[in-house]
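Worked problem 6 (solution included).
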Amino acid sequence: MTDSLEKATAELREKIAEHVTAMQQDEHWREIQKLYVGLGVLEGLLGQPKTDLSSLLGINSEGDVLKISSWEFAGMQPLDAAKKFLRMIAPKRKAAPLDDIVKALEEGGLKANPDELRISLSRSTYEVYKVSEDVYGLLEFFPHVKEKRGKKKPAAGESANSNEAQPETEVDVATGSAS
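Solution. The predicted structure is:
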């Protein structure tokens, strides 16, 4: 039985290698390679975890479960531990439900009150993005949201471009009237 499984495994590897060789000749594949290298450089500069190519290609196996050590979050503040967890999962997914976050923190040695953590995550608007009800991610992994948040809406009566020169009003010193 072992021989037949080994033979089947070798045949599958060979078929995959043939397809990969064919794909490598395609201009789209070469472009993916360039973009992936660039992504790795940017992630390195930002101190973010490197995105796994298999996850970008949609090739995930059942064994791709995040391993959290028993004391990963021990002694940390719940909000800091939650942000650390969200960074850990970022290469595979951008956000997680509150229940998953609480479960991961407990797995990592930190007991967190779900209601208090919900409040902390919701209030941490400079770093945390509330994707939907009880689903949170780090703002750094949602650049389109971060970009929107950086733009201010003009106040009533204020020009959309605050750098525009405003007309100056001159006052006649003798009469005190504006011109």
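Discussion: Confidence is low (pLDDT under 50) at residues 160-169.
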